[in-house]
Amino acid sequence: MAGLAAVPIIADSIDEPFYTVLFSRMLILSIGAISLNLILGFGGMVSFGHAVYLGIGSYVVGIGTLHAIEDGVSWMANGFIHMGIAVAVSALTALIIGAISLRTRGVYFIMITLAFAQMFYFIAVGNDNYGGDDGLSLYTRSEFYELLDLSNDNTLYYLNFIFLIVFLYFSHRLINSRFGMLIRGAKSNEKRMESIGFPVYRYRLVAFVIAGAICGIAGVLSANQTDFVSPAVMHWTRSGDLIIMVVLGGMGSLFGPVIGAVAFLFLEEFLSGITEYWQIFFGPMLVLIVIFGQGGIDGILVRLDKWWQIKKSA
Amino acid sequence: MLIVDSLVKSFGGLLAIDDLSFQVKKGVIHAVIGPNGAGKTTLINQLSGEIKLDSGNVLFDGINISGMDVHLRSALGLARSFQITNIFLDLTAHDNVALAVQAHAGHSFKFWKDASKDHELRQPALEYLQQVGLENRAEVVAGQLSHGEHRQLEIAMALATRPKLLLLDEPMAGMGPKESIAMVEILQELKGKLTILLIEHDMDVVFTLADKITVLVNGRGITTDSPEAIRKNPEVKAAYLGEENTDA
Amino acid sequence: MNWILLLEQTLNGLQLGILLFLLAAGLTLIFGIMDLINLAHGSLYMMGAYFAATFTNWTESFFLGVLLTLPACMLFGILLEIIALRTLYTRSHLDQVLATFGLILFFNEFVRLLWGPIGLDIPLPDILNGSVELIFGIRYPAFRMVIIATGIIVALLLYLLVSRTKIGMLIRAGASNRQMVSALGVNINLLYTIVFGLGAALAGLAGLMAAPIMTVEIGMGEGILILTFVVIVIGGVGSIRGAFVAALLVGFIDTVGRSFLPDILGLFVSNDVADTAAPAISSMLTYVLMALILAIRPQGLFPPKGV
Lengths: 314, 248, 307
What we know:
The complex is a heterotrimer. Chain A is mostly helical. Chain A has helices at about 1-5, 5-15, 15-40, 50-70, 80-100, 105-125, 155-175, 180-190, 190-195, 200-225, 235-250, 255-275, 280-290, 295-314; strands at about 135, 230. Chain A has 14 helices and two strands, in the order ααααααβααααβαααα. In chain A, strands 1-2 form a two-stranded antiparallel sheet. In chain A, helix 3 runs antiparallel to helix 10 (about 200-225), helix 5 (about 80-100) runs antiparallel to helix 10 and helix 7 runs antiparallel to helix 10. By secondary structure, chain B is α/β, with parallel strands linked by helices. Chain B folds into two domains: about 1-75 and about 165-250, P-loop containing nucleotide triphosphate hydrolases (Rossmann fold, 3-Layer(aba) Sandwich); about 85-160, no CATH class. The longest helix of chain B has 14 residues, at about 145-160. Chain B starts with a strand and ends in a 7-residue tail after the last helix. Chain C is mainly α. The longest helix of chain C is centred in the first third of the chain and has 32 residues, at about 5-35. In chain C, strand 1 and strand 2 (about 140) form a beta hairpin. Chain C is globular, with a radius of gyration of 20 Å. Chain C has helices spanning about 5-35, 40-60, 60-85, 95-115, 125-130, 140-165, 165-175, 180-185, 190-210, 220-235, 240-265, 270-295; strands at about 130-135, 140. Chain C contains twelve helices and two strands. Chains in contact: A-B, A-C. At the A-C interface, helix 6, helix 11 and helix 13 of A face helix 4, helix 10 and helix 12 of C.
């Protein structure tokens, strides 16, 4: 974590600001993955539509700044308002999607969340006023009065960093609270939870909404990072990427999603540096990880640690 | 306490429960016995709400619970244990019972306070573990407990929901003689404090514990009576001895 | 109202529905029998199109190309099942999602490497290139009629296969109760492989029929895959009959909605608003339909018995 805090300083000192941007993306996707981990890792809900909220957050910024610049409605560039609206719209969307899809189980749940995400994708594609398929370039980033100047990449980096820390702490509290115990219990044995008297559905729905709202914030940050908004941010493969990050990092561990997001982007950077066809390696890698790896990277570290302990004591 | 009135349930064309009626009085241990496939587990699943019934009524404490959801029945004071051990294997015994306490300690929209340090949950949970003799195993992960201990833990979890009526689905299944004796002692300890509906194969256990017995054969209740009367009942004997011959 | 257009769009909807059915029939069985969520089913569709393009090119005959494509797809599917998917049956749905997602990435990249990033076209033989006359002098492209006819024939054959043959009986039994089939002492691995191969051939058939009217391109299977999921969810997992009804329903609503919604909206709001709102709303139609059906019947229209 301390290492992450120093990234912009190091990047500036070696004159490679590119690294600040890369790590900034890692932080943002970490937040997205943390939010997904709440429902997927701890709650066992395989939502295949989580990128929708990234999209909602992004479009709030894109649409807001567009009107602020073109129509001169200056409050629409306000970052606090962006955050507020992104959280509200994401939460509401999650409430609707969750209310329908959480009534189902297993493959149904996966397919339905995926289908709804696709619906939002097509809405964005079909909306020509806001760029349709091509997307929108941001004229300006979200404005935070005199407090923050996001046009500076380093400032944005630290904003992302602070949000990451806040959400990490929040999810740490959440998963250990009564609410968190309930969500984890329902993942482990839903039937039993009902028989000891929990109305599981409504708690799951609340978890689903919380996860959506957090991811909405990640969307706001993401739009500011890339200065660009397009339907591609909520393409179904982005939802898949988020799942990969959560699983890669280790499901249901607090720092797992962060590890997963960092590893995912490093892999992408590294493999695409070797070959344009990097996914031809990444795809089968994924299959092998599923078949042979358990507990993701975090799990491997834990196992290595155990092995090391045994070796030391022997 | 519990009135079961003309219960019917069929799966496909197969009649699992056929016009079953009986009553369970408050404070007793009421056993349901019957040969394999008589519909005992189906009955428990219906009483706890996991299976919907086709027709008939179930009255619990004067309230008709026939169409009610599982968690609402639990809120009214109906708890059950499962025939196949059904606990949270990746949590400690203490956590398992604490969850059950939590289920009946108001709503769980509490997002901040650490539940594992919450005395309102932990303290009562420990007391329930004591009641079933598991207090020394409280911090062991449930997956590492023995089979007998799993069953004890199940009872502790059921007790933690502060039930008026406890449905026990073969609590002795798969237990060794020593573990069985311990379980009988636990149940005897509970006798009089709450009402228990017990399904059990081990006849010694049934006759030791039960105040009333209902005999279920092919989904029909052939009689409900005291243990002594059941022992002498020729119909019961025929049902048990001639299991293969009686063709419903 | 323009009745000729309506007829044409209805036929287009039917034709999309047929393609969806060919994809959904195999996929719903794979869900129902193996309890496997296979995202890579769309890749089989894509491979069908690419195989067809290549074989047509080699043999310089569309018909020979088709004849080669079907067994190739089946073989491809069987190999895929044996190499990669077989180990996934006992895994969690999450593992299956990840692994088959990985397969999609692989196949997309593989196709890009082998066939290049630019889309392909399949030239149709003259006999299929014209149009046929329906009633009252209304003409409709011949190839699209062929698609519809082929789809209906395949649906009938599938119906006969599933309802009249021994293997069909096993498939039906497997879709409603998996344990039962293994208890019957059937070679379950072989049954799975056959079902998968059948599903692959159907997906390939859909791909090769779609190829001449849409471009053959990378990722072509993904959008239609998600629409296929909608079909399966609506129809009920494991039900071929449900897949058929739902596929036609979705195909019809999607196509007709897209072409008539601007007009219908125009009756209520100004034309400008209708023109901008219509594309977004029409793309929502099928999903709203799905949501409505699920709200009423969470198991879909035709849930297999015994589940």
